[in-house]
Amino acid sequence: MVILSKFAERLRECLGEENSARLAKQLNVARSTMFEWLRGSFLPSTRSLVLLAEHFSCSADYLLGLTELPAEYELQPVLPFGQRLREVLGLFSVTQYRLEKETEISSSVVYSWLTGQAEPTVESLVRLAEYLGCSVDFLLGRER
C-alpha cells in the first residue's frame, strides 16, 4: 500500500531527532505502536493521525503523502466526524444513498459515522476524500 509506506516515510521525516518514545507517550499510544507506524506496518487511527498532524503543525494529507506541502492554510480544530460528513455531503450535493452506492461502503458503516458511533479508518478517509475530490483535512474540517 503506497499510503502506508509514504506515511512511515513522512513520520520519520517529521520526527527527525525527536524522541519517538516521548511522542508516543504524549499521544497516549504504546511505544510499540509508534515503532509499527515508523516501520510502515499499519496506519494510525484517525484520532492519532490528527494528533500527529497537530503535533507536527502539518496537514494530515502531508503525513499521508497525498500532498507535498506540509500545510497551505491555517488548520482548524477537527469537528465531530458525523457532523462534518453531513456538511461535506451537503456541500457536494451527495446523498447518503449515493455515497454508499458509489463508494461501496455499507450503509451500516456510513450510519455509524453519521451518528457518531464510530470514526472512519484512515483508509476510509482517503477513499472518501478521493471520491469527493477533496483533501482529508477538508473532510475532517481542519481545512475550511
Summarize the structure in words:
With 144 residues, the chain is mainly alpha-helical. It has 2 domains: 62 residues, 434 Repressor (Amino-terminal Domain) (Orthogonal Bundle); 60 residues, lambda repressor-like DNA-binding domains (434 Repressor (Amino-terminal Domain), Orthogonal Bundle), CATH 1.10.260. It is globular. The two termini are 29 Å apart.
N-to-C SSE series? HHHHHHHHHH
Instruction: Calculate the terminal CA-CA distance, rounded to whole Å.
Output: 29 Å
Unreliable residue stretches: none
The number of distinct helices, counting runs of at least 4 residues, comes to 10
> Which architecture of the largest domain per CATH?
Orthogonal Bundle
Quote the CATH topology of the largest domain: 434 Repressor (Amino-terminal Domain)
- Report the portion of residues in β strands: under 5%
Radius of gyration: 15 Å
Determine the CATH superfamily of the largest domain.
Answer: lambda repressor-like DNA-binding domains
| Biggest sheet descriptor | none
Mean pLDDT: 93
Give the beta-strand count. Answer: 0
- The 3D shape can be described as globular
Instruction: Return the CATH class of the largest domain.
Output: Mainly Alpha
**Share of helix among residues?**
55-70%
What structural class do the secondary elements suggest? mainly alpha
Q: How many domain modules?
A: 2
